[in-house]
Amino acid sequence: MAQLVERYAGVSLVSRGDAFGTLARSIVGQQISVKAADAVWGRFATRTGKVCPDRVLELGEPGLVGCGLSRRKIEYLCDLAGHFASGRLDPRLWKRLDDEAVIAELTAVRGIGRWTAEMFLIFHQLRPDVFPLDDIGLQRAVFTHYFAGEKQPRRALAEFGERWRPWRSVATWYLWRSLDPLPVEY
User: Fold this and answer.
1) Which of 38, 75, 96, 134 sees the fewest Cβ atoms within 10 Å?
2) pTM value?
Protein backbone atom coordinates (compact mmCIF):
# COMPACT_ATOMS: atom_id res chain seq x y z
CA MET A 1 0.00 0.00 0.00
CA ALA A 2 2.85 2.39 0.81
CA GLN A 3 4.12 2.04 -2.78
CA LEU A 4 0.70 2.92 -4.18
CA VAL A 5 0.37 5.95 -1.91
CA GLU A 6 3.80 7.14 -3.03
CA ARG A 7 3.05 6.47 -6.72
CA TYR A 8 -0.15 8.54 -6.64
CA ALA A 9 0.99 11.30 -4.29
CA GLY A 10 -0.72 14.61 -4.86
CA VAL A 11 -3.90 13.05 -6.27
CA SER A 12 -6.92 12.57 -4.06
CA LEU A 13 -10.58 11.73 -4.03
CA VAL A 14 -12.89 14.72 -4.48
CA SER A 15 -16.67 15.06 -4.31
CA ARG A 16 -18.67 16.77 -7.04
CA GLY A 17 -20.93 18.11 -4.27
CA ASP A 18 -24.18 17.18 -6.03
CA ALA A 19 -25.96 14.21 -4.45
CA PHE A 20 -28.55 13.81 -7.21
CA GLY A 21 -25.97 14.14 -9.98
CA THR A 22 -23.65 11.65 -8.30
CA LEU A 23 -26.42 9.06 -7.94
CA ALA A 24 -27.70 9.68 -11.47
CA ARG A 25 -24.18 9.29 -12.86
CA SER A 26 -23.75 6.01 -11.00
CA ILE A 27 -27.03 4.67 -12.44
CA VAL A 28 -25.99 5.70 -15.95
CA GLY A 29 -22.63 3.95 -15.49
CA GLN A 30 -23.95 0.65 -14.18
CA GLN A 31 -22.75 -2.39 -16.14
CA ILE A 32 -21.08 -0.43 -18.96
CA SER A 33 -17.52 0.72 -19.55
CA VAL A 34 -16.30 4.06 -18.23
CA LYS A 35 -15.94 5.33 -21.81
CA ALA A 36 -19.49 4.30 -22.74
CA ALA A 37 -20.84 5.77 -19.50
CA ASP A 38 -19.16 9.11 -20.23
CA ALA A 39 -20.72 9.19 -23.71
CA VAL A 40 -24.22 8.35 -22.43
CA TRP A 41 -23.86 10.82 -19.56
CA GLY A 42 -22.93 13.54 -22.04
CA ARG A 43 -26.08 12.91 -24.08
CA PHE A 44 -28.22 12.72 -20.92
CA ALA A 45 -26.77 15.99 -19.55
CA THR A 46 -27.30 17.70 -22.91
CA ARG A 47 -30.91 16.51 -23.04
CA THR A 48 -31.71 17.65 -19.52
CA GLY A 49 -29.82 20.94 -19.81
CA LYS A 50 -29.41 20.87 -16.05
CA VAL A 51 -29.12 17.53 -14.30
CA CYS A 52 -31.61 17.94 -11.48
CA PRO A 53 -34.67 16.06 -10.21
CA ASP A 54 -37.21 18.60 -11.48
CA ARG A 55 -35.81 18.54 -15.01
CA VAL A 56 -35.74 14.73 -15.14
CA LEU A 57 -39.35 14.60 -13.92
CA GLU A 58 -40.33 17.30 -16.43
CA LEU A 59 -38.86 15.30 -19.32
CA GLY A 60 -40.17 12.01 -17.98
CA GLU A 61 -39.48 8.67 -19.54
CA PRO A 62 -40.52 9.73 -23.08
CA GLY A 63 -38.21 12.75 -22.98
CA LEU A 64 -35.17 10.68 -22.01
CA VAL A 65 -35.48 8.12 -24.80
CA GLY A 66 -32.68 8.51 -27.34
CA CYS A 67 -29.92 9.42 -24.86
CA GLY A 68 -28.44 5.93 -25.00
CA LEU A 69 -30.11 4.87 -21.76
CA SER A 70 -31.93 1.58 -21.49
CA ARG A 71 -35.63 1.72 -20.62
CA ARG A 72 -34.74 0.30 -17.21
CA LYS A 73 -32.16 3.02 -16.49
CA ILE A 74 -34.65 5.68 -17.55
CA GLU A 75 -37.12 4.20 -15.05
CA TYR A 76 -34.43 4.25 -12.36
CA LEU A 77 -33.50 7.87 -13.04
CA CYS A 78 -37.15 8.93 -12.88
CA ASP A 79 -37.62 7.04 -9.61
CA LEU A 80 -34.50 8.69 -8.20
CA ALA A 81 -35.79 12.12 -9.25
CA GLY A 82 -39.13 11.37 -7.61
CA HIS A 83 -37.43 10.44 -4.33
CA PHE A 84 -35.51 13.73 -4.31
CA ALA A 85 -38.45 15.88 -5.39
CA SER A 86 -40.76 14.40 -2.74
CA GLY A 87 -38.19 14.68 0.03
CA ARG A 88 -38.03 10.92 0.60
CA LEU A 89 -34.29 11.37 0.06
CA ASP A 90 -32.85 14.35 1.91
CA PRO A 91 -29.07 14.70 1.58
CA ARG A 92 -28.94 17.19 4.44
CA LEU A 93 -29.75 14.40 6.88
CA TRP A 94 -27.10 11.96 5.67
CA LYS A 95 -24.16 13.54 7.47
CA ARG A 96 -25.79 12.51 10.76
CA LEU A 97 -26.46 8.94 9.65
CA ASP A 98 -24.02 6.06 9.78
CA ASP A 99 -23.01 4.28 6.58
CA GLU A 100 -25.55 1.46 6.91
CA ALA A 101 -28.43 3.90 7.45
CA VAL A 102 -27.52 5.84 4.30
CA ILE A 103 -27.20 2.58 2.37
CA ALA A 104 -30.69 1.56 3.58
CA GLU A 105 -32.19 4.87 2.39
CA LEU A 106 -30.48 4.74 -0.99
CA THR A 107 -31.31 1.10 -1.71
CA ALA A 108 -35.01 1.96 -1.32
CA VAL A 109 -34.68 3.64 -4.75
CA ARG A 110 -35.17 1.37 -7.77
CA GLY A 111 -31.86 0.75 -9.49
CA ILE A 112 -29.69 1.51 -6.49
CA GLY A 113 -28.15 -1.52 -4.86
CA ARG A 114 -25.53 -1.84 -2.18
CA TRP A 115 -22.62 -1.33 -4.61
CA THR A 116 -24.07 1.94 -5.93
CA ALA A 117 -24.77 3.14 -2.39
CA GLU A 118 -21.21 2.32 -1.37
CA MET A 119 -19.84 4.23 -4.38
CA PHE A 120 -21.97 7.18 -3.26
CA LEU A 121 -20.57 7.00 0.26
CA ILE A 122 -17.03 6.96 -1.14
CA PHE A 123 -17.33 9.50 -3.96
CA HIS A 124 -19.94 11.92 -2.68
CA GLN A 125 -19.95 11.69 1.08
CA LEU A 126 -16.19 11.02 1.21
CA ARG A 127 -16.79 8.51 3.99
CA PRO A 128 -13.39 7.17 5.07
CA ASP A 129 -14.17 3.55 5.92
CA VAL A 130 -16.21 1.96 3.13
CA PHE A 131 -14.91 -1.33 1.77
CA PRO A 132 -17.04 -2.36 -1.25
CA LEU A 133 -16.52 -6.13 -1.20
CA ASP A 134 -18.58 -6.66 -4.35
CA ASP A 135 -16.49 -4.28 -6.45
CA ILE A 136 -14.68 -6.26 -9.15
CA GLY A 137 -11.85 -3.70 -9.40
CA LEU A 138 -11.18 -3.83 -5.66
CA GLN A 139 -11.20 -7.63 -5.71
CA ARG A 140 -8.84 -7.79 -8.68
CA ALA A 141 -6.42 -5.28 -7.15
CA VAL A 142 -6.30 -7.01 -3.75
CA PHE A 143 -5.84 -10.43 -5.34
CA THR A 144 -3.12 -9.09 -7.66
CA HIS A 145 -1.14 -7.17 -5.02
CA TYR A 146 -1.57 -9.45 -2.03
CA PHE A 147 -2.48 -12.96 -3.21
CA ALA A 148 -0.35 -13.45 -6.37
CA GLY A 149 -3.48 -13.10 -8.51
CA GLU A 150 -5.31 -15.95 -6.77
CA LYS A 151 -8.99 -15.30 -6.10
CA GLN A 152 -10.04 -15.56 -2.50
CA PRO A 153 -13.43 -16.09 -0.86
CA ARG A 154 -15.42 -12.99 0.05
CA ARG A 155 -14.83 -13.67 3.76
CA ALA A 156 -11.06 -13.66 3.21
CA LEU A 157 -11.28 -10.35 1.35
CA ALA A 158 -13.33 -8.83 4.19
CA GLU A 159 -10.85 -10.05 6.79
CA PHE A 160 -7.91 -8.78 4.75
CA GLY A 161 -9.54 -5.34 4.46
CA GLU A 162 -9.61 -4.99 8.24
CA ARG A 163 -5.92 -4.01 8.14
CA TRP A 164 -6.92 -0.68 6.57
CA ARG A 165 -9.74 0.18 9.01
CA PRO A 166 -10.71 3.03 9.60
CA TRP A 167 -9.39 4.15 6.20
CA ARG A 168 -10.70 1.40 3.91
CA SER A 169 -12.15 3.91 1.41
CA VAL A 170 -8.69 5.41 1.03
CA ALA A 171 -7.11 1.98 0.56
CA THR A 172 -9.79 1.10 -1.99
CA TRP A 173 -9.14 4.30 -3.94
CA TYR A 174 -5.40 3.57 -4.13
CA LEU A 175 -6.06 -0.03 -5.12
CA TRP A 176 -8.32 1.19 -7.93
CA ARG A 177 -5.56 3.57 -9.06
CA SER A 178 -3.19 0.62 -9.33
CA LEU A 179 -5.46 -0.81 -12.04
CA ASP A 180 -6.39 2.45 -13.74
CA PRO A 181 -4.28 5.49 -12.95
CA LEU A 182 -7.05 7.85 -14.13
CA PRO A 183 -9.39 8.43 -11.20
CA VAL A 184 -13.04 7.59 -11.78
CA GLU A 185 -15.43 10.30 -10.63
CA TYR A 186 -19.14 10.00 -9.92
Assistant:
1) 96
2) 0.86
